[in-house]
Amino acid sequence: MPRLGLGVWKTDNHTARDSVAAAIRNGYRAIDTARQYGNEQGTGAGIKLGLEQAGLKRDDIFVTTKLYNGEQGDYDQVAKAFEHQLSDLGLDYVDLYLMHWPVDATFIESYHAMERLYHEGKIRAIGVSNFDNDRMAKLLEASEIVPAVNQMEFNPTNQEHDILPFDQSHSVEMTAWSPLGGGASLSNPLIQELAKKYQRSAAQIILRWEWQRDIVTVVKSTHEKRIIQNSQIFDFSLSDEDVQKINQLDQGKRGLWYDDFQWHNPKGAYGNSIDQWPDTRK
């Protein structure tokens, strides 16, 4: 799995197509989407276009998508949902299939269905997203296959200081979503100071820090110039001292977490629906 990829959260199908094609054209080899984002069709179109423009084959890139909360359940339900996702993406398989959120009533059963799909060869790896330690421990006890990754919010002010070591101790890779803290980390005084010191953008400083922390990172941008810039983190290194300085920014503040969702907490602000976008599968 490439350790730097493009994500397409809150991106419509047209923009997802253009962003994904631009990313592949400019050297990205990992693309991350989800049923909940409502843009798998656009992402698939972007993959096809990008591969053609770059002269690459399907096996040259790594594609991740996620099992939607409202489609969790037994094998038949999960398999049907997954086949729809493959159709929307225009792919024969995905490299990584994640459970998007641990819906309490179904996450064990849903993961068993994902294990079966893995054994059928339709998925090359399976994992989870947004699993705290309690739910991860329950999943590990009940499952056959250790999740390849746990995709979590991870950025300078939220470094998952409890979840990261727990996952690492069980050979679960941490993947960062919102690696720039929703943009908030870009204006941090220390990040700005280091950007001047290394003559880099604030985003490049953060992404390089995550690279040196051995965190797989999914970064979103819809502008080709920024997509390119975000990938240019391999011709410099942060000193150990500066890495430690950024480590000290951790406040354990999550922008979004499990209890915000209505299907877990009736008072939550987020419902069990396609995230902000029309359902393109109707």
TrEMBL record:
<protein>
    <submittedName>
        <fullName>Aldo/keto reductase</fullName>
    </submittedName>
</protein>
<dbReference type="InterPro" id="IPR023210">
    <property type="entry name" value="NADP_OxRdtase_dom"/>
</dbReference>
<keyword id="KW-0560">Oxidoreductase</keyword>
<feature type="domain" description="NADP-dependent oxidoreductase">
    <location>
        <begin position="4"/>
        <end position="250"/>
    </location>
</feature>
<comment type="similarity">
    <text>Belongs to the aldo/keto reductase family.</text>
</comment>
<dbReference type="Pfam" id="PF00248">
    <property type="entry name" value="Aldo_ket_red"/>
</dbReference>
<dbReference type="InterPro" id="IPR020471">
    <property type="entry name" value="AKR"/>
</dbReference>
<dbReference type="InterPro" id="IPR018170">
    <property type="entry name" value="Aldo/ket_reductase_CS"/>
</dbReference>
<keyword id="KW-0521">NADP</keyword>
<dbReference type="InterPro" id="IPR036812">
    <property type="entry name" value="NAD(P)_OxRdtase_dom_sf"/>
</dbReference>
